[in-house]
Amino acid sequence: GGLCQIIFTGLLITLFSFRNFAVGTTFSKIEVVQVAILGLVILGDTLTATATLAIAVAATGVIALSVGQTKITVASLFTSLAEKPTLIGLASGAFLGGSVVFFRGAALALGYDGFVMAAAFTLAVSVVIQTAIMGVYLAFREPATLKDVIVHWRGSLAVGIAGVLASIGWFTAFTIQNAAYVRALGQIELVFTFAVSVFFFRERTSRVEVLGIGLVVAGILILILGR
């Protein structure tokens, strides 16, 4: 799971080197669909018809939101399916989805009676593995960057704490419930981001963005009310 997450990040960064990276990043954001598929194949986690509908609606909302925030069109999404940025975007989403499913599988495999210890142990091991992998990579490939990370640790402390708290929430939720449900519900972060951009930063929004947020909210409500 930790390795999949690293690969996902690397692929996502690679996308930005392409001129038409917006299409690829759009496809990378529908990982909830891939989580549902991988969860079924790897862990045998099934979805109800209502949950499937909720995920489809929310995923459509994410695509609409991405289209509204960029210059790409719905038509260009379909015409670029075979292009390299699209394939990288889909691959990055698949690795993110894989990380989620593997994290859940690891937590469940521990066999703890309580979900708290299972989630905490899985998170701790994952962080240690990722730190070791990235530490070795930076030491050999970018030693100057590793030095900067160590020297300027105070600047990233707040971000690190926020990341840890978010990870605790994610891992706990993955341990308790089907990962596809968790990722679908987790798309509420897009609503919060949208609200901050509109009410705090006073950014202008398009009708497509509003439609996208509406679909995301609708998908989340269907998921919650349908259970």
Principal-axis shape equals globular
What is the number of E strands? 0
N-to-C span: 28 Å
Mean pLDDT: 84
Uncertain ranges? none
Structure write-up:
The protein has helices at 2-15, 21-28, 31-43, 49-69, 74-79, 84-109, 115-141, 143-151, 157-176, 179-186, 188-199, 207-225. The chain is mainly alpha-helical and 227 residues long. Helices cover 81% and strands 0% of the residues. It has one domain (2-225).
Notable traits:
globular, 227 residues, mainly alpha
List the helices and strands and how they pair.
Blueprint: H1 2-15, H2 21-28, H3 31-43, H4 49-69, H5 74-79, H6 84-109, H7 115-141, H8 143-151, H9 157-176, H10 179-186, H11 188-199, H12 207-225
Helix pairs in contact: 1-6, 2-4, 2-6, 3-6, 3-10, 4-12, 6-7, 7-8, 7-9, 11-12
Short description:
By secondary structure, the chain is mainly alpha-helical. The chain is 81% helix and 0% strand.
